[in-house]
UniProtKB/TrEMBL annotation:
Alphabetical keyword list: Glycosyltransferase, Membrane, Signal-anchor, Transferase, Transmembrane, Transmembrane helix
Pfam family, one: Fringe
Membrane topology category: Single-pass membrane protein; Single-pass type II membrane protein
Gene3D superfamilies linked to this entry: 3.90.550.50
Name of the featured protein: Fringe-like glycosyltransferase domain-containing protein
Species, as recorded: Pogonophryne albipinna
Region (Disordered): 48-84
Domain (Fringe-like glycosyltransferase): residue spans on this chain: 90-223, 226-255
Family: Belongs to the glycosyltransferase 31 family.
Primary localization class, coarse: membrane
Stretches with biased composition (Basic and acidic residues): 71-84
Entry keyword annotation includes Acetylation: no
Amino acid sequence: MQKKRWIRRKLPICICTFFIILYVDFQLRSSSLPKLSVAHPLVPGPLQRSIQEAPSPARDAQIPGGNSSDSRAEDGGHSDSEDAHVTLPELKLEDIFIAVKTTGRFHETRLALLLETWISRTKAHTFIFTDTEDEDLHSEGYNMVVTACLSDHSQQALSCKMSAEYDGFMASEKRWFCHVDDDNYVNPEALLSLLSVFPQDGDIYVGKPSLDKPITAHELLEGNATVTLSYGMFENKMISIEVKGSFSQEKDPSRFV
């Protein structure tokens, strides 16, 4: 009986001691394991950064024009279509080719009056087309173009001078062509103000009939003594316009080459 009583008394103590030993052993084992630290992203070194920043040929081949987003950011976000649109500079009086048509017998009358008035202010870009040599005008520095045209008022003679005016304008690379007769007065400032309001890259014809009756179609500018045309009216347009006389392809094929 005493032995059983002793076992019942000692058994709980043994069990408790056993669990204490297990607990202590577990704690000792846990403390001896290496601690795991949270992995932080590594800061790339110079070599790694250079590798990361190096362009990829395969990636660039998939994106036309390379890194388009970066290029748009560098140029302020402008698209290619906006850059393609080029605004022409402000129109100046020097951009207007003024052609004055005259003849030898009017050099000392009609033309002399123009030289004393408005041509004196537009001398550098006004060109006088005539059929007679004039040493006095040459010596004074005027832009004289002596044509081989007849001196009469026939359609052939007038078309011949207009042809010479056209050639002179195309060679000048100016932006507007203004044709006037030797009995016309031109206000240069008013002309510049008028032309400045029109689209500078369009096909513009500015003219006013000088007759009080219907105008009959002619091969020359009959009844429209003063006209002004933009460069776009001529550029690459001759092959699409049917003309006759000195302007025609039959009379002067070189114009249509």
